[in-house]
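Supplementary Methods. Inverse-folding protocol.

Structures were first reduced to a discrete structure-token string of length 473. This string, shown here, constituted the complete conditioning input.
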């Protein structure tokens, strides 16, 4: 099959000298990269807090407040519909902020995306309900959710490139996993606050105003994130591109023209991670409280324990990726997800908190086996001139394929009194599709690249063509 053309190769002598991390990860670089990785983690945690708090609210209260004329099932589906809009906006945000990142630098992306998401989240907490302003309420909710997704679409690419392009080559997987810990931290912050409010307020108080508090808190978190990121340095790769005039004029067009198959493969490969995560953290919350009579406090506690486990396992999986390669871990994670979906549903149906937590934790372990390494994997697939756009659009395309529809489809499949085996079958099918996509992607770890071409990460302008053509796409 004919391969996608790679970007035009610029002679190796063109780049001006640029600072780079030492391959041995010596002490001289560690304090700097630790500070940068911590700033990336903090900002990602805050942005995902904003995104997750909406998902929890959609599962618990948004249906009756903003779609009161619907049946309980239809109201939940409508609330999850507005939830899904955020995923549809994420590829658009990744295209917008990817262009900024490839043309003007990774640093502006970090600041602008955080500000946009924070403002939209605070505004959600201020929207009057349907009973106050009628149809304008769900319309405003939809618009603000779109803006949330737009901002989050740019966050991931800026954060992972900040760490990946500063990191020592042989420890890139570990340092690039710091932004991947952010979603777990953000989820725990969002749901911890929801859990505290749910436990301390009456149902009437929580429904009236308590659910708004986590959205208002996003404003303070956004200010803290902007303060942390105010002094981050631009990455060595982008400084070299800017100094030599090799930045892409239209990075999105270049990605679509030269690497569209790679883009579709990465989106399909990552779909299962999103599907499993949102099945565990969003759909299961609504299902267990509505069908199994499990209290929302108990469900939030079970899910939070599993997500905390996921966060703790992220750096370990990333270190394994540095040692054994990115692709083997991704294949193992997909296979584990395919095997575990039916046991997951069976354990959740018991309504036993310990068994449900076990089911959720194993499911998220399979997911994080993949997602711990993608912070290094996706940037390594693209040349520096289009890296922010290519990696970010591919990552968020997976969110559309796996995250936007999963709560909606799962809620529809689980309607009725019997076990929701249809949900397990749906998730298993996505896992198998993702497994097939990962099987067609190349290995990109530094050792593998050097064995094939003698090139390293900073020479990926050349290696991207080789890596892309190595994949049987």
């Amino acid at each position: 099959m004919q391969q996608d053309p790679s970007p035009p190769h610029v002679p190796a002598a063109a780049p001006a000298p640029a600072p780079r991390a030492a391959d041995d990860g010596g002490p001289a670089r560690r304090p700097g990269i630790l500070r940068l990785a911590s700033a990336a983690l903090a900002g990602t945690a805050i942005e995902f807090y904003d995104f997750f708090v909406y998902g929890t609210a959609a599962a618990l209260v948004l249906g009756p407040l903003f779609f009161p004329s619907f049946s309980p099932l239809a109201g939940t589906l409508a609330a999850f519909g507005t939830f899904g809009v955020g995923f549809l906006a994420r590829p658009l945000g990744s295209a917008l902020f990817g262009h900024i990142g490839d043309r003007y630098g990774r640093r502006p992306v970090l600041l602008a995306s955080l500000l946009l998401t924070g403002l939209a989240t605070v505004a959600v907490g201020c929207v009057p309900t349907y009973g106050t302003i009628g149809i304008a309420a769900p319309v405003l909710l939809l618009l603000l959710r779109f803006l949330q997704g737009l901002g989050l679409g740019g966050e991931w690419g800026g954060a992972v490139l900040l760490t990946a392009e500063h990191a020592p080559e042989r420890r890139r997987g570990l340092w690039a996993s710091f932004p991947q810990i952010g979603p777990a931290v953000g989820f725990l912050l969002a749901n911890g606050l929801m859990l505290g409010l749910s436990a301390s307020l009456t149902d009437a108080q929580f429904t009236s105003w308590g659910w708004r508090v986590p959205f208002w808190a996003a404003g303070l978190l956004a200010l803290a994130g902007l303060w942390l990121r105010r002094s981050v340095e631009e990455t060595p790769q982008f400084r070299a591109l800017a100094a030599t005039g090799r930045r892409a004029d239209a990075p999105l067009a270049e990605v679509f023209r030269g690497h569209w198959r790679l883009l579709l493969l990465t989106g399909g490969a990552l779909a299962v991670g999103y599907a499993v995560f949102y099945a565990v953290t969003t759909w299961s919350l609504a299902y267990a409280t509505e069908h199994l009579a499990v209290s929302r406090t108990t469900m939030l506690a079970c899910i939070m324990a599993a997500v905390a486990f996921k966060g703790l396992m992220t750096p370990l999986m990333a270190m394994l990726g540095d040692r054994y390669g990115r692709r083997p871990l991704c294949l193992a994670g997909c296979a584990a997800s395919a095997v575990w979906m039916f046991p997951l549903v069976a354990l959740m149906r018991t309504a036993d908190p310990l068994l449900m937590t076990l089911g959720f934790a194993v499911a998220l372990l399979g997911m994080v086996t993949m997602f711990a390494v993608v912070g290094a994997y996706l940037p390594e697939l693209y040349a520096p001139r289009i890296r922010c756009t290519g990696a970010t659009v591919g990552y968020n395309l997976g969110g559309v394929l796996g995250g936007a529809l999963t709560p909606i489809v799962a809620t529809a499949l689980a309607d009725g009194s019997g076990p929701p085996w249809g949900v397990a079958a749906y998730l298993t099918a996505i896992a198998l599709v993702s497994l097939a996509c990962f099987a067609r992607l190349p290995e990109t770890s530094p050792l593998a690249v050097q064995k094939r071409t003698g090139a390293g990460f900073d020479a990926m302008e050349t290696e991207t063509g080789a890596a892309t053509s190595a994949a049987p796409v």
